[in-house]
Design brief:
Layout (H helix, E strand, L loop, with lengths): L2 E9 L3 E8 L5 E6 L26 H14 L2 E4 L3 H9 L10 E3 H10 L12 H7 L12 H22 L7 H23 L1 E8 L2 E7 L9 E7 L2 H11 L11 E2 L3 H8 L7 H19 L1
Parallel strand pairs: 1-4, 4-5
Antiparallel strand pairs: 1-2, 2-3, 6-7, 6-8, 7-9
Helix pairs in contact: 3-5, 7-9
Length: about 300
């Protein structure tokens, strides 16, 4: 299989300073430092690449052809939290990455190890932590150069891929196994997100008002709780009910309402269904509303 593992270091997360590519056999097939074209001063505390170190190097734009050819020939790309690397590579002139098959080692770790620990796919620890958990000797002292990070990431990739195919009763990985792994990760993440959306609409009593709030867990037994309704999507429920009850909200009192018996009954009878796209949209709207409320 022609799978390329990559890692890059950046000037302020915007321009390439260093890029390393490894083949699946563990050999580095490309490594280069670059001189940024737009940024002349940047933070060096993580990767320790100073402006002086790359002052005589070529900009990435002048040598990107070799990288383009290597990536074009690859069946799949991998890395740790590789989305950011691919984003900067795309902005730097590398084409076709949006259509490339990508399997992120961070996601592989979550699928093979993190799920058993009830880890969120959006809260996977660092490469160092993951590598150590897999039995690899990798520390802060050796991390944060592109070559060292790529080599450690590739070792994690091979361990996790082998673990995955062994679970399928196989000993040698093929391209279709990578595709199956990607699909299984995507399906598991979608189920995690759907389960995370489940929750409750809660109505409590606060002085002469009603408090309407939302959460993942039940508040059954709370003294001020009047009733709660279990819903498939608490984000959609919050968006729809806040919109429905907007005119009943007490001015200056977030989540407090003057509700009629009919409106309380409407909330009791409220139901919804989960739809991934709708849920993500409602969650984004609510996050933005929350930021505005805090301003």
């Amino acid at each position: 299989m022609n799978i390329i593992c990559l890692d890059a270091e950046f000037a302020d997360n915007e321009e390439l300073l260093e890029l390393s590519l490894f083949g699946l056999d563990g050999k580095e097939i490309y490594h280069c430092y670059y001189r940024p074209e737009m940024i002349d001063d940047w933070r060096t505390d993580i990767h320790h690449i100073t402006p002086e170190m790359v002052a005589d190097k070529q900009p990435f734009s002048e040598v990107k052809g070799e990288v383009q050819c290597l990536l074009d020939d690859a069946y799949a790309l991998t890395g740790f939290a590789v989305d950011n690397d691919l984003r900067v590579l795309t902005r730097s002139g590398i084409s076709g990455l949006d259509d490339k098959r990508v399997i992120d080692v961070k996601d592989m770790y979550w699928y093979q190890k993190g799920r058993a620990e009830e880890m969120s796919p959006f809260a996977v620890p660092s490469l160092i932590v993951c590598a150590n958990a897999l039995g690899l000797d990798f520390s802060e002292a050796t991390a944060h150069s592109a070559s060292a990070d790529t080599e450690a990431t590739l070792k994690c990739f091979n361990l996790l891929l082998n673990s995955y195919i062994e679970g399928k009763g196989k000993s040698d990985a093929a391209e279709e196994d990578v595709d199956a792994f990607i699909n299984d990760i995507n399906d598991a993440r979608a189920l995690f997100v759907q389960d995370s959306a489940r929750g409750y609409v809660k109505v409590g009593k606060y002085k002469e008002y009603h408090k309407v709030y939302f959460g993942k867990s039940s508040d059954s037994g709370e003294r001020t709780l009047l009733f709660e309704v279990e819903v498939a999507d608490r984000y959609k429920a919050e968006y729809e009910l806040r919109k429905l009850l907007k005119k009943k909200e007490v001015p200056g009192k977030h989540n407090l309402y003057k509700l009629t018996p009919k409106q309380l009954d409407d909330i009791r009878r409220y139901k919804n269904e989960y739809n991934a796209e709708d849920s993500a949209w409602c969650k984004k709207i609510l996050r933005n509303l929350s930021r505005l409320t805090l301003m």
